[in-house]
Amino acid sequence: MRTRRLRLTSLALSAACLLTACLAGCSNGSGSGDDTDVSLRMTVWSNDASQTALFDSIAAAYRKTHPDIRSITFDYLPIDNYTTALTTQIAGSNPPDMAWVLERDAPDFVSSGALTDLTPTLRKTPGYQYDDLTPAATKLWKQDGDLYAYPFSTSPFGMFYNKDLLKKAGVTSTPDQLVAAHQWTWQNAEKTAAQVVAHTDKQGLVVRDWDYKTWIELASLWRGWGADAWSADGRTCGFDTPQMRQAMTFLHDAIFTDKALPGPGETADFFAGESALTVTQISRATLLADHPFDWGIVPLPSGPAGASQVIGQAGIGVMAKGAHKQQAADFLAYFSDPANSAKLARYFPPARTSQLTTAALAKANPLFTAQQLQDVVIDGIKDGAVLPSHEDSAKIANLVQNALDPMWKAGANVDSVLAGVCKAIKPALSE
Amino acid sequence: MSDTPVTGARAGTAEPRAGSGPRAGSGRRRTLRRQDTLSGWLFVLPQTLGFLAFVLYPLIAVVYYSFHHSNVLSGVTTYAGTKNYTQLIHDPATPAVARATVLFCLGLVVINICLALLLAVLLNQRLRGTTLFRTLFFSPVVVSLVAWTITWNFLLQNNGGINSLLHVVGVHGPNWLRGDDSALVSVVVVQVFKNVGLNMVLFLAALQGVPRSLLEAAEIDGAGAWRRFRSVVLPMISPTTLLTTIVTVSGSLQVFAQIQILTGGGPDNHTNVLVYFFYQQAFDNHDFGYGSAVAVVLFAIILVLTAIQWRLRRKWVFHES
């Protein structure tokens, strides 16, 4: 009796095992393969509850008129390893139907054929107003005139400042006053930050998300000197140019001589009141919704080369390996139509010319004044340039990070380190 | 009488039942044997399927990919011959990765084994409070690796807990995770504290198995404490030393989460060990072919090191038989 029971148990276990293996093997990650019962999935790097609620509400409205769509889910992946997680899903034959793509990965995703051409679907969607999309916003996501991702967020960088902390440190000219006096320069920003460090127990200036690793965030600084990581065609290294050397020497002195920025291994969160100034995208303003302190925002300071604004961008693409490409493209057309674009503008500055007005943005962004929206958002998008990107961005990012590491210590030879960066990335740039 | 079917072994020795001839008995035995064989296969089937799907298939796939260029985004895979291996030899990062791997492995194995043995010897004494200390030293083993590493990450920051403590006694601590050498030392120490308890327990068990008669005989012969430890205890626990060394060496070559959380392979590749380098190439840079070649080399290194240790055991491991 016991043997028979054991046999039955082992048979049941084996059957369960086979069934699990079959289910795992047969699953396409997108739910049913039946086009009348479709589950769509989009990967995102935001887990902000209010943003997720907005996405869900748009998806719910779409499903009311599209009974063939059983569900639309927004799959959160942390930004730190977002692209790695996304490409792992693609490699593992479990791609999402739609994905947010960072601007730095755009050339790689577009040129490799990972995304589908959205132009036919967006053009034929009634009321979409395809020609309303600004050429500057779509440039990065186009190939041979076709659009491979919708630039749902074109977010300028700005400098947030903590008025309370500046007052406590005895700062007499606040950033908005310096802007008005045409003295809003990196030198003055650095002096302000150093004064806060000297007179309070808080930090001065934080380049958010950089943390001595994500060097691409430093573009907000070095472009004030007219420097860039590489040439426009991506073939020539820009780290050893005189402009870059001056910018990086300024940064190095600000960190290790004036202590205006937190040193390596030191953390300070502006939005928790731990620093006086921070360079980051305006979409982070949601973190100040509860008004933890009196704050303001101004455009990025000027450098020797003048004012140079920087834009971070994210696109939504339909994955070429997705199981329901047309349904995903149709949903994306709805998600980014004029009405929904206006709703999304609350968090993500739109790519539509008609919506880039102070009045339109003010409706969606109650945290900002009209002047801030004009100076930082509208002018920033109009005059700004997108962060550096490259077809081999991930590999180059690692190489630059390793080569820049020796700079982040007192007494480092900036020129020599920057020459080393170019030596490290030149083979990858010329591939 | 129970109706439980007899096993094959019992069937072979059982008397034929009344009314059944030799041919019928032999047929039943064959049927029973077939059923037993089927049962055996069914029992091992889940494990076998798991092994095929999650061990053997990935192993073969990694070797296959190591001879190909694979673009994850486009899904195109092309034959590359030995180019990925050649690339590894000529990669400018290879010397730094090799250095970090060797130093990390050596540091971890030496410190871990020595400290585990020392702790085991101390806690093997009949002193008060040893149970508490055994628990304290073993508890990190059962703590989540990621939680443990994140906690240490906070402690090792420039303005973190360790430097704050040092500041109290007037010492200006280094920037642990950013210094070229201190970063590697920090990762080794974090890993040692995490796992030393496991080796300590193994050594403790081995020490308690050393016959007291041998120690007493050595003492009567005039051997001091160090001589007894060197000539009696160490040989007697050498099988455990072999086991812990093999496990620690192979474990040190597979350390990943600590590097990922604490240093990300930096600064300037000083903590970029081979397994992390593999991850960077395959998953960060989307170069599965090159990453697979690194993984195959890592597999070969572990295999060779384990084989060497297994061969050397004849020279230093004591077996009573």
Mean pLDDT of chain A: 89
Which stretches of chain A are low in confidence, meaning pLDDT under 50 for 5 or more residues running?
21-33
Q: How much helicity do the residues of chain A have?
A: 40-55%
Strand order, biggest sheet of chain B?
A: 1-2
Q: What fraction strand of chain A?
A: 15-25%
Number of helices of chain B: 14
- Number of separate structural domains of chain A: 2
In short:
Chain A is an alpha/beta fold and 431 residues long. Helix content of chain A is 42%, strand content 16%. In chain A, a hairpin with a 2-residue loop joins strand 10 (302-303) and strand 11.
Q: If you had to describe this structure to a student in words, what would you say it looks like?
A:
The complex is a heterodimer of chains A (431) and B (321). By secondary structure, chain A is an alpha/beta fold. Chain A is 42% helix and 16% strand. Chain A has two domains: 192 residues, 3-Layer(aba) Sandwich (D-Maltodextrin-Binding Protein, domain 2), CATH 3.40.190; 193 residues, D-Maltodextrin-Binding Protein, domain 2 (3-Layer(aba) Sandwich). The radius of gyration of chain A is 24 Å and the shape is globular. About 3% of the residues of chain A have low confidence. Chain B is globular and about 65 Å long. Chain B is mainly alpha-helical. Chain B contains 14 helices and two strands, in the order ααββαααααααααααα. In chain B, strands 1-2 form a two-stranded antiparallel ribbon. Classes of the chains: A alpha/beta (431), B mainly alpha (321). At the A-B interface, α1, α3, α4 and α16 of A face α2 and α13 of B.
